[in-house]
Structures are given as C-alpha cells and as structure tokens.
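Most newcomers find our protein records easier to grasp once they have seen one. A learned vocabulary of local backbone shapes supplies the integers on the structure line. An example says more than a description, so a record of this kind follows:
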Amino acid sequence: MFVAVMGTFAANAQEASEKTLALSLEEAEQFAVDHNRTLANAAIDVQKAQANKWKAIASMLPQVKGTVDYSNYFGYRMSIGGMDIAMPPYANLGVTSSVAFNGVMAVSVGMAKISRKMADISLKKSERDIRDQVKELYFSALVTESSLALLKENLKSMNKLYEVTQNSVNVGVAEQTSADQLKVQAASMEATINSTERALEMVYNMMRLQLTLDEDVKIVLTQTVNDLLDLEYIDSLMSETLELDRNYDYQLLKNSTELARKQVTASSLSNTPTLSVFHQYTYKHYFSNEMTMNMTPPNMMGVSLSIPIFTSLANTASHKDAKLAYDKQLNTLMDTELALKVQHSQMVFNLKSAVEKYHTQRQGFEVAQRVFDNVTKKYEHGIASSLDVTNAGTNLINAQASYVQSVLEIVDDAISLSEILNK
C-alpha cells in the first residue's frame, strides 16, 4: 500500500512539474517565436512567395510534354484513285517542347522577387512584434507581482495594527472609531490585492496565448524588473539616429511602391509581341503489316509571333490605372517618411518624459513606504492616530500604483522607440 501511494504521489508530482514552465525573458521570447501560429503562417507566406517566384521563372523556360494515343478504324479501308489503302489500328507517341517569351513575363519575374522580399520582411516584422508583445507582458507580470507582494506585506502590518487597536478597545483604553478606521483601511488594501491578483492572472493568460500554452500551465518568471530595466540602454536608444531603411514598415511600403512601378512597366509591355517556338517529335506505330499511307512527319518545328493590333483601348486603360496607382503609392511613401520622422521625435520625447516620471514616482513610492512604516511605529507607541495610519496607507497605495504605471510606461515607450529604429 505504501509503495502504491508513493508511486501515485511521484506520478502526480511529475505531472505537476510538467505543467510548470520557468522562463527568462529571452527564453519566453524564443518560446513564443518557436510556437506562435501567427508566425508559422508568416513563414508559410514566405514559402508561397518563393513558389510564385519560381512559377514566374518557369513560365519563360522550355516546356516539354508527352502524349500517347491509340486509334482503331475497325477494318475500314480507304480507296484513292483505284488504290485500296488499309487503315490499320495505330498508336502515336509524341513529345512536344515549346518556349514562349514576352516583356510582361520578364517583368513578372521581377515582381515575384519583390513579393518574395516583402514576405520575408513581413516574417521578420511578425517575429519582432511577437517578441515585443512577450516583453511587455513579461514586464507587466513582474511589476504586478512585485506590487502584489508589497501590498500583502502592508496588509499584514495593517491587520496587526487593527488587532492591537481592537484589543485596546476591548479593555477600554482606545476608541472604537480608531479600530473601525483601521479595519476599513485593511479592507481597502485587501480589495486592492484581489483586484491586482485578477489583473495578474489576466496578464498570465495573455502570455499563455502568446506562448500557445494551455490554461493550466503555470508560468514562472525567473528574472526581476531590476534585472531587465536597463536605463543605460534606454539612454543610448534615445540618442540613436532614425534610419528609414531599417524600419520594417518603411521597407514594406518601399517595396510595395517598387511593385507598383513594375506594374506600370508590365502594363506598358502588354502591347508587345509574344514569341513562341516549338518542336514536336512523333513516332507512329501500326498494329498491322498491311500497306498503308503514313502522312505524319516524325519531326515538326514552328515559330509564331503574336502581335496585339487592337484591344479596344483596354491595354491603354490598364496602363493609366497602373500609373495612377503608382503615383498614389509615391505620395503615401513620402507621407510615411515624414510621419516616421515626426513619430521618432515624439517617441524620444515620450521616453525622456517616462524616464523622468519613473525616477520621480520611484522616489515618491519609497518615501510613501517609509512614511507608512514610520507612522505605523508611531501608532504602536501612541504617538500617531489611526487617521494618520489610514492616510499613510492610502498614500502608499496611490504611490505604488503610480510607480507601477511609470515602469510600464517606460517599458512601452522604449519598445515603441526600438520598433521604429528596428534595434
């Protein structure tokens, strides 16, 4: 019985360990990249674009096809000028090779290459976006956990004060209103803790979604905010110069503009001739020794030149449409260049403000914590009132919330700036 119980306990312990995933920030990002289905779809798009590129190239290469056919006239004989000609059953084996070329096909290859490049850029952008989303969630979880731990410690202190005060009320040396004020403050802290716990679980659920994990998998974060919040790197990030060609969104738009230009070229070549060359080899086998007439040549070659003469101005309209689309794309590209430069300046400004706010809120939180601890000690010695403790506790909760918000702001602004710089 003891062995069976221990075996069951070991199995349950192993199952529990399998449902716990301990991750550093880098490991969490890589796990998301390896398992995220959105990124997998982006990788599939790259493969599709590569296939389309080779499809365009293959359209200009020689095409070879074979044919086999069998015919039977069921003994029919043909009479020509008094000559009786047999029509025995026969089979044909044919091999045809052909190649065709025009200007549009050549441009299509270039367009396919651009599409392949854009798919690759989209894949890189998707990977970066996933890493950034995981980073935001990782920081959010760390800050929320830290906040939750501090709130629980302060709640212990508040509950201890309430118990001491209530005991004093019971022996008649303190007023009930003092105990009631502390009880209300403790209840307020407990409500804040419950709300924070729910917010933390929501963050972890969002992280599970990014990592494609089941809802019962427990995620353990192995790093702290102090490990990851690199203010020196943030300072260096703000001094970086914006290089538009490094920005993924700009790269995509630039390639899209080039694709529109290629479309203009393709539409202008729609009136050019199409040159086709083919060679056909045919082997004919009769299933009879009777004399017959074989009029099928074993080899045949042909060249054709197809020249569009009149298309009811359809090609002209297509060319005009492509030209207008290209002009529109150029305008969008120039507007995007300006917008990215303005965004970069604003992001640097926002990040500087976030850093300054972070330092201020951190100092304010540390001061609020010291004040709360000091007032608590004074209250224990009868120097401070319960109202002082209540006010100090309220100020501490507010200062802590402001500090948490400042950390998240500096992380979000740093990620936004790194995205536009592609650093």
